[in-house]
Design a protein that fits this description.
The chain has about 230 residues and is α/β, with parallel strands linked by helices. It has helices at about 10-30, 60-75, 90-100, 130-150, 170-180; strands at about 35-40, 80-85, 105-110, 160-165, 195-200, 205-215. The chain is about 35% helix and about 15% strand. GO terms for molecular function: protein serine/threonine phosphatase activity.
Length: about 230
């Protein structure tokens, strides 16, 4: 969301209404609540699947999702919603997590599907998608960032807690953009399956990273990055 001062023509409003009403209108546009964003990477999945529908969670992946769900439930927070990628591995991860958070609504979106957000710098030799993929996926993932990562609406009175279940590339890009780091550096970050990344967006627009890729709640033999 934009800075409140950018939403009002100060000179025009001052001439029409005077300082007192201008201050009131400006205050009406200001965010009052804090948003807590929990970005969850999907659990381990079958890499041999040719189509998305075949890339289902492995038995270990299902265990990881259970552990992530328990961890989120143990935080004792009132989660508002779970927004998840429409890809199979993210959808299945969401279904398992949601069993530990009864009553929390689930929303599927194509915006959070995995992809190539932007050409990494420095480049890497082991991952070189076609250039067109950056244009196709990059615009969509940037749209996801702009659509979901912003300060609270001015009408929101209480702090909110939202879960986003998606993919490593998407999460890494979002973290770089949210912290105003060069987004080309996204591939320097690493995320385990089922990991929790926690962003906080204050009413003034400041963003803080509480945790990045936390899997400390999983036994060592359950941790993977595939």
């Amino acid at each position: 969301r934009r800075e409140p001062l950018a939403l009002i023509n100060l000179k025009k409003k001052h001439e029409e209404t005077g300082e007192e009403e201008l201050a009131s209108r400006l205050d009406h546009c200001k965010a009052k609540a804090t948003r807590h964003i929990f970005l969850i990477r999907h659990s381990q999945y079958n890499l041999d699947g040719r189509a998305d529908k075949d890339r289902t969670l492995t038995p270990l992946g299902r265990e990881q999702a259970e552990l992530t769900g328990r961890r989120l439930a143990s935080l004792g927070l009132k989660f508002d919603q779970i927004i998840h990628s429409s890809m199979t591995r993210a959808t299945e991860t969401t279904e398992i997590i949601s069993k530990h958070l009864p009553g929390v609504k689930k929303i599927s979106t194509d915006l959070l599907r995995e992809g190539a957000p932007i050409e990494p710098d420095p480049p890497v030799s082991h991952w070189k998608p076609e250039a067109v993929q950056y244009y196709e996926d990059g615009a969509r993932i940037e749209a996801a960032f702009r659509n979901f990562i912003h300060r609270a609406d001015a009408k929101q009175e209480e702090d909110s807690y939202e879960i986003f279940v998606c993919h490593a590339n998407v999460i890494r890009y979002i973290v770089c953009r949210a912290l105003q780091f060069p987004p080309e550096g996204w591939l320097r970050l690493s995320l385990n399956n089922g990991s929790i990344t926690h962003l906080v967006i204050r009413p003034n627009g400041r963003v803080a990273l509480r945790t990045l890729g936390d899997t400390g709640f999983m036994p060592p033999d359950k941790i993977t990055r595939t």
